[in-house]
Design a protein that fits this description.
The structure is a homodimer. Chain A has a 4-stranded antiparallel sheet. Chain A has a 4-stranded antiparallel sheet with strand order 2-7-4-5. In chain A, helix 4 packs across helix 7. By secondary structure, chain A is α+β, with helices and mostly antiparallel strands. The relative contact order of chain A is 0.14. In chain A, 38% of the residues lie in helices and 19% in strands. Chains A and B meet through helix 2 and helix 3 of A and helix 2 and helix 3 of B. Chain A binds a DNA duplex through helix 6. Chains A, B: InterPro entries: cNMP-bd_dom (IPR000595), cNMP-bd_dom_sf (IPR018490), Env_Response_Regulators (IPR050397), HTH_CRP (IPR012318), RmlC-like_jellyroll (IPR014710), Tscrpt_reg_HTH_Crp-type_CS (IPR018335), WH-like_DNA-bd_sf (IPR036388), WH_DNA-bd_sf (IPR036390). Chains A, B: This is CRP/FNR family transcriptional regulator, anaerobic regulatory protein. Chains A, B: Keywords: DNA-binding, Iron, Transcription, Transcription regulation. Chains A, B: It comes from Atopomonas hussainii.
DNA sequence: CGTATTATTGAATACCATCAACAGACGTGG
DNA sequence: CCACGTCTGTTGATGGTATTCAATAATACG
């Protein structure tokens, strides 16, 4: 199954696509730019060929030159400790921008890898920074994106520090459901792009715990799950269990 | 004891202080600005009277108007869940900037409270944003600050997700030690501005666990602790235990 | 079609939280 | 200055939640 891009009306943008034709223009960096400004941003963006599942977009420690907006597919970002264990820091869907944790150093702070076939827009940071000088809206949008990421990471700290396994999974499901809806996909039925293992890693749980909670949620009639296919049967209950704040 | 400002040569800046006279100029927002640019930044900064321990600098949900650079003292930031429980998202020392998680909304995303007598520089965001248009260095520094915060939050996610209680405390001690050294204070002897309770909350541990780890570390000759006074006896061992990455 | 990876389920263990009691620090007011 | 109450910190005993270990089942992949 060709994943997300086929689930709704989004056109999988071809290599030549421009920002103004992209269905994600209302969510992505160009948000609130006027037409001429969008063209300027468009000029500095490089559109590469698709990444296959498992391909790295960049690796922790590599020279930092660009940030990347996801056009289709899904990306996970992760950090590795000295001990070699990895911590997934985020799953990223179309319109989201990855790589911003590397801005203040000359190397990438995280690694980014495709979870499925994925296309991205590469945005050279030097040129983006120049452009941000001229376009106040763009500068604000950049700051907003980073601010939002800080807020989401802090919500994640809350989750990892205070929530039970059930609450973590519920929070995750409600959160990703909302993000799919924002992008025009079904909020109640979707295919998770990540494995149970990656989900557990991200949520601070063992794989087995993730599995157990999924089966328990099914027994309780909260969800139906068949591998990575998930349907939310009782979103309200999940939302309550998640403790409200999910986005 | 009048806390941090008396521990080394830093002059506790009076109300009239300007950025160019501030001992923190090499760590704070003005970093890498030239003299004239610093004056421009200086013009938009409001310097208020000190906050007493327990005073709120701002509260989650209040209108977002400014970010704040800490001049002396210490601040904790925290989020509260719908259930009313709080998660501390950071402890902040002089030269650090708080409030940036609220940039992309019109309300503050976290609350900020003084842990001891604290002075701050208020920086109205609208004017900072305007100034960022003219001063490329300032814009970069702002982006750098946010980028760094994202990285630190992600390291925190790693800690909360993967580390044991011992590793968490060791990581915290090594981290704050380095931050004190950066600011010209002793790296091996300091007074923690937060309670055991707050430390546990931040690190995802129960108060009792924090207490036990502190006593165990003392028995092992790693530290000496007397309430909030802490000496690092064997920093190398602590560093190893922390798993390297601490900043 | 066979192998490797991923997912599920069960049993035993470990780590930390919780509960409870006490000790010490702090601050207030007598 | 000391008595008092409150808050914070320490220590011990117990229990729960999630991990770990182990085995099997299902899925993906060449």
């Amino acid at each position: 199954m060709p994943a997300s891009t086929s689930q709704c009306g989004h056109k999988p943008s071809g290599l030549q696509t421009h920002c103004k034709d992209c269905s994600l223009v209302g969510l992505c960096l160009p948000l609130s730019l006027n037409v001429e400004d969008i063209d300027q941003l468009d000029d500095i963006i490089k559109r590469g060929r698709p990444l296959k599942k498992g391909d790295h977009l960049f690796r922790q420690g590599e020279p930092f030159q660009s940030v990347y907006a996801i056009r289709s597919g899904a990306i996970k970002t992760y950090v590795v400790t000295d001990a070699g264990e990895e911590q997934i820091t985020g799953f990223h869907l179309p319109s989201e921008v990855v790589g911003m944790a590397g801005i203040d150093s000359d190397t990438h702070a995280v690694s980014a890898v495709a979870l499925e076939t994925t296309t991205v827009c590469e945005i050279p940071y030097e040129r983006l920074d120049d452009l941000a000088m001229e376009l106040p809206q763009l500068r604000r949008q950049l700051m907003n994106l980073m601010s939002r990421e800080i807020r989401e990471d802090q919500q994640m700290m809350l989750l990892l520090s205070k929530k039970t396994a059930d609450e973590r999974i519920a929070t995750f499901l409600v959160n990703i459901s909302g993000r799919y809806r924002l992008r025009g996909f079904s909020a109640h039925h979707f295919r998770l792009p990540m494995s149970r293992n990656e989900l557990g890693n991200y949520l601070g749980l063992a794989v087995e715990t993730v599995s157990r909670v999924f089966t328990r949620f099914q027994e309780q009639g909260l969800i139906e799950a068949n591998g990575k296919e998930v349907s939310l049967i009782n979103p309200n209950e999940l939302y309550a269990m998640a403790g409200g704040r999910c986005e």
